[in-house]
Amino acid sequence: MRLLILFLFFSPGLLAQNYEFRNGNWYNGSGFTTATWYTSGGKLSKKAPSRIDSVIDLTNMYVVPPMGDAFSSSIADHPTPEMQLKNYMNDGVFYIQILGNNKEMRAKIEPLANKNTSPDISFSNGEITCTLGEPFMKYEPGAMGVRPTAVANKKDEIRLSRKAMGDAYWFIDNKEALSANWDKIKAQKPGVIAIRLLDAEKSGGKEGKGLTPDVAKMIVKKAHKADLKVYARVENIADVRLAVKLGVDGIANLPGPAQQMGQTAAANTELSDDDIKLLAKKQTVVIPLFAHAQQTGPASAKMMEMQRKTLKRMFDAGVNLCVGSDDPQRTTRLEINYWHGLGDIDYAKMLNVLCEKTPRAIFPERKIGKIENGYEASFLVLDDNPVNNILKLRATKMRVKNGALLK
Question: Rounded mean pLDDT of 312-319?
Fold first, then answer.
């Protein structure tokens, strides 16, 4: 492999050639099959193209699809987003979904993304909430030029401001507001619609919370009619059940808030067997964000045990689990490490989440997340079998995106 890397370094034209990847152990959805694959025109093929420019021997190597991050927060606010995009690529994460951004963030990031050398990104743009609901206080002070240290003394002034309205957030309280703003929301070309369901049945429509159930239902219906996915951030189990009932495509976190997991009543934080069965039946995407449990310090043993059991129950039931970071500084590495640290993990199922389910949830219309004929020729070549240890995903010897070999 070292000789191959040197050869590539001195042969830049190689990036546009047709390749034969011989003798690798290729991911088949649950394990690995030894085979030879070809890449041509940015696609994978079992059939050799009419011209093969280079043969690359992958004997004793393991090949998997690239990973995804279904809930990235570390790019939009990053002072040097190009560096964070590079970190994602180095970690083998080629597909990213951002659930909450403003126009300025997107304008800054988008020209850097969606290339052979950088991840592909789906943006939600502004989140949809109720008047003064989350994430109003996250964005409005900054739009007003109010320093974080001055927010407490300027709350009344901030509450009256709407500088980030229609940009970082949308206030939708009724059918009339939805009708008045829906075309504007679509005009921003979101890849996904992000909504807030924060104790929706009791507190929907209240300041600091999110949508009412009736308004959320109207939004989901309109979004699906426009072929747009809907992901909901939730606060308690009742919100999870409401989200599934409404037919959202994804639940962007498990209750929660994460720092309360294992400390509040189980009825508020723990999925029942019926909840898990229904999530599996509906194939609703679930992004757990388990690592949030250690945001304010080490996670408690009680909390981690509940998470471990919940993760195993969801794996066993066939829930459409996806990995997301929602970390202001990091890629998915911390969340993956946290899952690994919970113990009793089926690495084969976790690999399927990381490399197949998550990318396909972010870009369901694309042929990614699998090693199959006609799929995009994007994959990672590893030193060791990640089914034996999921952290072996870090031992990347080669990365290929759309048929281009990356240094």
Answer: 97
| Complete DSSP assignment for 272-334 | -HHHHHHHHHHT-EE---GGGGGTTSSPPHHHHHHHHHHHHHHHHHT--B------SS--THH
Q: Give Cβ neighbours of residue 57 (< 8 Å, ≥ 6 apart).
A: 22, 23
Distance separating alpha carbons of residues 242 and 197, to the nearest angstrom = 9
- Which residue in this structure is represented by tokens 């709407």? 162
Query: What span, in angstroms and rounded, lies between the C-alpha atoms of 33 and 64?
Result: 11
Structure tokens at 267: 């009825």
- The DSSP code for 356 is I
* Range with the poorest average pLDDT among 91-95, 229-233, 295-299: 295-299
pTM of the model: 0.93
**25: β partners:** 34, 62
- Give the tens place of pLDDT for each residue, 245-290: 999 999 999 995 444 444 454 556 789 999 999 999 999 999 999 9
For residue 358, report the phi and psi dihedrals to the nearest 5 degrees.
-65, -50
d(CA 223, CA 182) in angstroms, rounded, equals 9
Are 68 and 323 in contact by the 8 Å Cβ rule? The answer is yes
CB-based contact 217:247 (threshold 8 Å): no
What CA–CA distance (Å, rounded) separates 373 from 196? 39
Distances (CA, A) of 95 to 75, 76, 114, 358: 13, 15, 9, 8
The pair of structure tokens assigned to 257 is 């808030």
